[in-house]
Amino acid sequence: MASNAPHLTARPGHPLKGTVRAPGDKSISHRSMILGAMASGVTEVEGLLEGDDVLATARAAEAFGATVEKLGGGRWRVTGRGGFQTPTGVIDCGNAGTGVRLLMGAAAGYPISATFDGDASLRSRPMGRVTDHLTRMGASFDWSGKPGLLPATLTGGMLSAIDHVQTVASAQVKSAILLAGLNAEGTTSVTEPEKSRDHTERMLRAFGAAVDVQEDGEGWIIRLKGGQPLTGTAVSVPGDPSSAAFPLAAGLIVPGSEVTVEGVMLNPLRTGLFDTWIEMGADLTIANRRVSGGEDVGDITARHSALKGVVVPESRAASMIDEYPILAATAAFASGETVMRGVGEMRVKESDRIRLMVDGLRVCGVAVEEEPDGFIVTGGPVPGGATVHTAHDHRIAMSHLVLGLAAEQPVTVDEPEMIATSFPGFVEMMNGLGGEVG
Ligand SMILES: O=C(O)C1=C[C@@H](OP(=O)(O)O)[C@@H](O)[C@H](O)C1
Ligand SMILES: C=C(OP(=O)(O)O)C(=O)O
C-alpha cells in the first residue's frame, strides 16, 4: 500500500564540495548524560549530539533525579545526586539501544524500580543480552509482554560482582555490566576476545573511578571495583565518525567531489570504515591530528575516487559495526566484489540491516548476495530510480540517500524523520555541500 508519510529524495549530478563539522559522537553523548546523573556534582558537556536518541537519555537522566539544563547549542549541564531515584513515569528510550541498555545497567545498582520502553524498533530488539547478566548480579526484571523484549520493569538493589566473558563484541553489554558493577559488592570483570569501543572505560576514569584493563591470552580483561563514587566533570564530545561517514562517502562516490569533515574522532576502536576505504583505494586524507576531550581527533578529506572491492576482515567488524550500511552503498560504485562477513550483529540493530541493505540495494539495481552473517556487493553501474523501505532505521535511510547522490536516477527513502535520531542536520549538511536532498 502506498504511504502518504513524508519521503526524502536524493538526486544525482551535483558534486559535493566544502568543509563541515561532524556532529557530536552519539556513544559519548549518551554516556555523558548517564554518568553525569550517577555522579555527585556538576558535569558540563560541550558538543553534545542533540539527536532524538540522546535527548531521550537526557530526559531519562532527569527522571532518575538529576537536574539537566541546556545552556546553549550543544552545551548542557547535568547536576547529579550521586545515585538514581525511582522515576514517576515510564523511561521512554525511543529508538536507542545504547540508551536503554546502559540505563538499565546504571539503574540496576540502586534500590529503585523503573519501567523501560521504546519505539516499535526498540521493542523488537533483544534485551536479554543485558538483563540476563544484570539478573545474575541481583537485579530482577518483569516483562509485561514477551520475556527479553521491552517494555520491562527493573527492580534494582544490592548487587554482587560477576565475571563475564563476551561471546559477541558489544560495548553496550560491556557498559551495562560495568555501570552496574560500580554499585556491586566485589570486583566486576568483563573479558573481551574482540575489543569493542572503550568510551565507558575512558569516561569512568574521567569521573574518578579506577578501571583496570589488561591483555592476556583470552583477550582484554576490564576490571572495576564496586563502591567507587563518581564525581561530575567536564566532557568535550568529539565528532562522530559514524555520522562523518555519510558526507565523506558522498565525497568518494559523487564525481567531482571534495569534502572535508572536521573534528572527527579517531579512536582506533571506531575507525574500521576509514581503514577499509583506504584499502579500497579511496583518496582519504587525515590532517590536523590532535587530542580533544581525551580522544584523538582529526580533519578528514574525501575526494572522488576509483574504488575497488575488498574482503573486509571479520576481526574489523566491531570497529565499524554501524558503518557497514554506508560501506555497502560505496561498494556499489567499486569495481568487483566487496565481501562483508562476520557481521550477524547487524541483524539486531534498529532493523535487520543485512536484509534491509540487500533489499534496498537490489531495488536500486545493485547486485548483492545475502548470507546468514553477512553480504556481498558487486559494484557496477547503479541505476537507482527507486523508493527504499527503511524500517525505522536512520542509517539505512542515510546510506541510500548518499547512494542516490551518485546513482543514475534519484533514490527516495521512507520514514526520513528517523534520521534525527543520530544526525539531525544531515539534510542541511548534504545540501550545504552542494548535494540535492529534499
Ligand atoms: O556502546 C555504544 O555506544 C554502541 C555500541 C554498538 O552496539 P553493540 O554494543 O550492540 O555492538 C553500536 O552499534 C551502537 O550504535 C553504539
Ligand atoms: C545501532 C545503533 O544505535 P543503538 O544501538 O543505540 O540504537 C546505531 O546508531 O547505528
Automatic annotation (TrEMBL):
Where is the protein situated, by its record's location annotation? Cytoplasm
* Chain sites annotated for binding phosphoenolpyruvate: K26, G97, R125, Q172, R353, R395
Q: Which reaction does it catalyse?
A: 3-phosphoshikimate + phosphoenolpyruvate = 5-O-(1-carboxyvinyl)-3-phosphoshikimate + phosphate
Q: Which residues form the active site?
A: D322 (proton acceptor)
Example GO molecular function: 3-phosphoshikimate 1-carboxyvinyltransferase activity
Q: Tell me, what does this protein do in biology?
A: Catalyzes the transfer of the enolpyruvyl moiety of phosphoenolpyruvate (PEP) to the 5-hydroxyl of shikimate-3-phosphate (S3P) to produce enolpyruvyl shikimate-3-phosphate and inorganic phosphate.
Name of the featured protein: 3-phosphoshikimate 1-carboxyvinyltransferase
Tell me what gene encodes this. Answer: aroA
